[in-house]
Amino acid sequence: MMTIPTIIPALTITFLAVFFWLLRRTVKRNLLNQNSLLMWFGVCLFLLGMAVLPSEVIAVSKRLGFETAANALFFLAIGFLMFLNLLQSLEISRLNGMLVRLVQHVAMEEGRPTQDPKPAGPE
Question: Where are its TM segments located (predicted)?
Answer without folding.
Answer: 6-23, 35-53, 68-87
